[in-house]
């Protein structure tokens, strides 16, 4: 018997690595900041206990119950921190493993089709339809679902062939992991049945039916957990139907045609919103492709099992997203991740069906792979910066409220507050009920002190979704900034009623208690924040302030150091750390802390006075005089500093 060749791992890794190499410099994009970077709950693996609570949705900022995806982000952050290239490297590694699993799935289903297995895997690895799936770290759902889905299929084939217990258990476990990665895995049972019926496979009927029964039971259990026990309380409010002129009855057809376009022409046309005109264009392109493919398929009798498998892998995963794709959803291409496997199998099938000599088929396949790779390389330019990505969204749809909102967040992070305000306003003009834009504009207005304009937006947030804590929390922020303490406290409490794990509301309520002298209550709130978000810098700083008031300087120092581990450029934290060291008479440490405070915030002169005191304590009067001169330059009316300067000057002269 001829031994089958192994998968050429190194060769494929080299080729795929070249195609996707520029993603090493891609920053965090779009939802990455909310889901990974700024989501403190993801920064600690201990928060995995909330996977079994409905606090999961508010704590991890997820709409759907996908704990495996959240766990992957937690593991990534524990290893990579805030380094985006490591998160993207993990995504690429997962994508490459999926390419390997596709190779072995084809080999097990169609043992004689060695050329097809390798070709399909390579087409899948380099296709540009995966751009946003790999470039956006928070869009890992489909890759994880596909990984466990393919693993479950492979184990199921092994079980039906051998009847062994371990492959059965591994397959069931992989199915569960796939389901808890994304709901699309609900098509697993139909996929297994269709593969057995149309592609063929080894094993006795008793084993198959036993396996079907177990998977059916697992699916029912999952549905009970996902849609009953762990149903998002906000689901009923957040789900709104897509408005489109495309009739519901023909949406599946449009979905298939748009998917064909996305796979074969993604690198040429880029992303786009799917309005009626695009649907017509997509139908034309897809229709031509289908007609041409049908002619070739008629000649490909020898590849019928492969084509059946390709159609199963392509069409079944599209069923759950017919209502989303291709209608008004810029990010619909990520839904193509799993269906792309089916089309990747179809490409070499079509080439084999041409009847050309094998050498010509290899050359033709090489040309197709080269074109796909070039499309991927060209498409990556839109992901090199957040600005490029947002502008690409606007090119695809000039009326995209999400694009304008994203440009607003980019501008706000860069300190361009006026630009951010203009972008948020534009987003609200396009879509007045878009919660994120209303919230972001209210935040900017509060920062600018325009409370009269911010108040109606805060009220609108509560009207848009009274179940979310954000509207009450930002109202509390506005009232706190205005000095209306009692009403601010009431709003923070209302926010915590809706989300007991809202760390910003907990922290801000703690500052109110601290100002009122309720130090124990404030400390309890700060500790609750840190139990959920151990890297949340403001809570560590505030807890350190309480420790200073309680004369516990040693623990205060530790609190400030913990805060600075998460936010090393916080000048206030460095200043407070210096003060704590001063109380402990650790003059050199205090000196270094004050110098760091000045580096972090050069415009602040407050650390200079205490720096002078630290210099004097160490016997360095010239440095102390220099520090006091700089302090008095900004604070000439400070009588105490003037007297201290005079005393030091006299001592130096003597």
Quick tags:
single chain, 71% helix, elongated, 0% strand, mainly alpha
What does this structure look like?
With about 650 residues, the chain is mostly helical. The chain has a domain at about 10-230 and about 250-360. The protein has 33 helices and no strands. The protein has helices spanning about 10-20, 30-35, 55-60, 65-80, 85-110, 115-125, 130-135, 140-160, 165-180, 190-200, 205-230, 235-240, 250-270, 275-295, 305-315, 340-350, 360-380, 385-395, 400-415, 415-430, 435-445, 450-465, 470-480, 485-500, 505-515, 520-530, 535-550, 555-565, 570-585, 585-600, 605-615, 620-635, 640-654. Helix 5 runs antiparallel to helix 6, helix 25 (about 505-515) runs antiparallel to helix 26 and helix 26 (about 520-530) packs antiparallel against helix 27. The chain starts with 8 loop residues before the first helix and ends with a helix. Mean pLDDT is about 80; it is low at about 235-245, about 265-275 and about 325-330.
């Amino acid at each position: 018997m001829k031994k089958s060749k192994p998968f050429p791992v190194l060769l494929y890794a080299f080729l795929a690595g070249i195609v996707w190499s520029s993603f090493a410099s891609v920053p965090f994009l779009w939802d990455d900041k909310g889901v990974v970077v700024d989501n403190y709950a993801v920064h600690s693996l201990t928060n995995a206990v909330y996977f079994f609570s409905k606090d999961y949705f508010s704590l991890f900022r997820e709409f759907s119950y996908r704990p495996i995806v959240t766990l992957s982000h937690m593991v990534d952050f524990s290893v990579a921190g805030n380094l985006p290239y490591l998160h993207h490297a993990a995504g690429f590694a997962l994508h490459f493993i999926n390419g390997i699993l596709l190779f072995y799935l084809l080999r097990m289903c169609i043992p004689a089709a060695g050329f097809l297995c390798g070709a399909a895997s390579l087409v899948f690895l380099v296709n540009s339809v995966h751009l946003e799936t790999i470039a956006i770290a928070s869009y890992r759902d489909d890759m994880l679902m596909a990984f466990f889905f393919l693993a479950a299929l492979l184990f199921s084939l092994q079980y039906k062939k051998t009847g062994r217990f371990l492959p059965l258990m591994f397959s069931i476990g992989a199915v569960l992991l796939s389901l808890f990665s994304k709901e699309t895995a609900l098509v697993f049972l139909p996929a297994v049945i269709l593969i057995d019926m149309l592609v063929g496979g080894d094993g006795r009927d008793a084993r198959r039916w036993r396996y079907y029964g177990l998977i059916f039971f697992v699916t029912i259990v999952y549905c009970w957990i996902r849609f009953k026990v762990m149903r998002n309380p906000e689901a009923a409010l957040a789900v709104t139907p897509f408005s489109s002129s495309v009739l519901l009855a023909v949406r599946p057809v449009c979905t298939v045609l748009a998917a064909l376009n996305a796979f074969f022409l993604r690198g040429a046309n880029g992303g786009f919103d799917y309005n009626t005109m695009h649907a017509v264009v997509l139908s034309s392109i897809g229709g031509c492709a289908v007609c041409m493919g049908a002619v070739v398929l008629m000649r490909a009798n020898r590849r019928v099992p492969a084509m059946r498998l390709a159609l199963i892998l392509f069409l079944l995963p599209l069923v759950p997203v017919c209502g989303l794709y291709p209608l008004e959803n810029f990010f619909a291409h990520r839904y193509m991740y799993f269906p792309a496997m089916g089309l990747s199998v179809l490409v070499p099938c079509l080439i084999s069906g041409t009847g050309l000599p094998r050498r010509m088929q290899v050359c033709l396949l090489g040309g197709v792979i080269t074109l796909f790779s070039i499309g991927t390389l060209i498409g990556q330019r839109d992901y090199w910066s957040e600005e490029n990505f947002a502008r690409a969204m606007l090119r695809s749809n000039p009326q995209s409220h999400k694009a304008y909102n994203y440009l607003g967040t980019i501008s706000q992070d860069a300190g361009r507050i006026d630009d951010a305000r203009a972008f948020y306003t534009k987003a609200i003009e396009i879509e007045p009920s878009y919660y994120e834009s209303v919230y972001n504009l209210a935040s900017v207005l509060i920062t600018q002190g325009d409370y009269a304009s911010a108040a109606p937006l805060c009220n609108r947030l509560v009207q848009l979704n009274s179940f979310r804590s954000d509207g009450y929390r930002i109202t509390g922020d506005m009232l706190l900034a205005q000095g209306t303490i009692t009403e601010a406290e009431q709003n923070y409490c209302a926010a915590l009623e809706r989300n007991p794990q809202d760390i910003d509301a907990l922290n801000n309520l703690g500052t109110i208690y601290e100002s009122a002298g309720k130090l124990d209550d404030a400390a309890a709130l700060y500790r609750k924040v840190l139990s959920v978000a151990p890297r949340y810098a403001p809570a560590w700083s505030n807890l350190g302030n309480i420790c200073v008031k309680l004369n516990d300087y040693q623990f205060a120092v530790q609190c400030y150091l913990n805060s600075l581990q998460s936010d090393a450029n916080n000048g206030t934290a460095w200043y407070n750390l210096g003060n704590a060291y001063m109380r402990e008479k650790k003059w050199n440490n205090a000196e270094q802390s004050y110098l760091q405070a000045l580096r972090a915030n050069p415009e602040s002169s407050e650390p200079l006075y205490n720096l002078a005191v630290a210099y004097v304590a160490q016997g360095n009067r010239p440095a102390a005089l220099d520090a006091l001169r700089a302090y008095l330059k900004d604070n000439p009316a400070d009588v105490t500093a003037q007297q201290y300067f005079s005393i030091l000057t006299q001592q130096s002269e003597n």
